[in-house]
Amino acid sequence: MIATEYMAEALARLRWQDPQTKAYCDFVLREGATATIGRSSNNDIQIAEQHVSRQHAVVSYRNGVFFIADLSSSNGTFVNDERVDEPFPLFAGDRIRLYVPQIQFLAADESDLQVAEQTGRVILPAQNTGEASLIATNGPQEGQSMALNGTELFIGRATSDAKWQIRLQDRSVSRPHAVLRLNNDRWYLTDLGSSNGTFVNGAVLSGDEQRQLADGDTLMFGGATLLFRSDWNEAPPGEPHTQFRTKGDK
User: What is the pLDDT of residues 89-129, one digit of tens each?
Assistant: First the structure.
């Protein structure tokens, strides 16, 4: 449950056919929810199919719209047969393809929610507990979860004499590369003049910019991709409640 005065409503539904049982599966996303999709069991939605990467894609909610982002998967993520290279907005009726498996992105209503609650397939917004982690989605550390313990955490290449708290096994990562700082239960990311840049959802961080992170953000440090998961996902004060959109909406 999100820490707001209203209960986040059911906005979207992800529907696909289980590759093993051939049964159709439906997951309902409440407003503000983040859903990871992949072959590993640590995903919100597990699709055990050989073409699906362990950490394949993430659906997250931004400014009233659900977006999908590829997590440096081996075979790519497609929306309506268009390959997704950056976070891509989803609309009711869109067809998501994880190379072979297909997922329908649909609007959800209360009857969908009732069925999903009975089967335990409702994905809720993150709660306000102050906890967060990074999940590696490519390279030799793929699937590894790194808890963010502390208030200032440096990120850099893993070397024998590395003193930073988060060590990435990727030669394109600088020594050190970036820093995460916790302030008022929010995490902020700053690049430290790295050679290959720091990116949040495909956008490069400039200079000494401190970028506030949100649950489901994709982070790139050189060629290393990580997913930010946070239990704080409160909408900014005064932000209006936004309904699910279809392609005809402006």
Answer: 999 999 999 999 999 999 998 888 888 888 888 888 876 55
Nearest to 206 by CA among 191, 228, 188: 191
Report the C-alpha gap between 54 and 34 in whole angstroms.
17
Residues contacting 182, CB < 8 A, separation 6+: 148, 150, 151, 152, 188
C-beta separation of 5 from 236 below 8 A: no
CATH class of 12-123: mainly beta
pLDDT tens digit string along 10-43? 789 999 998 889 999 999 999 999 999 999 999 9
Q: Which residue, chain included where needed, has tokens 């979207």?
A: 12
What CATH number was assigned to the domain covering residues 133-229? 2.60.200.20
Sign, CA dihedral 56-91-198-213, equals negative
Of the candidates 105, 111, 67, the residue with the CA atom closest to the CA atom of residue 89: 67
From residue 189, give the alpha-carbon distance in Å to each of 99, 183, 210.
Answer: 32, 11, 5
Q: How far apart are CA 29 and CA 101, in angstroms?
A: 20
Which residues, including other chains, have CB under 8 Å from residue 91's CB and lie 6 or more apart? 105, 245, 246, 247
Q: Where are the domains of the chain?
A: 12-123, 133-229
Q: How far is CA 200 from CA 74, 105, 189, 216, in A?
A: 20, 24, 9, 10
List of residues 6+ apart from 41 with CB closer than 8 A: none
pTM of the model: 0.85
One-letter amino acid of 187: W
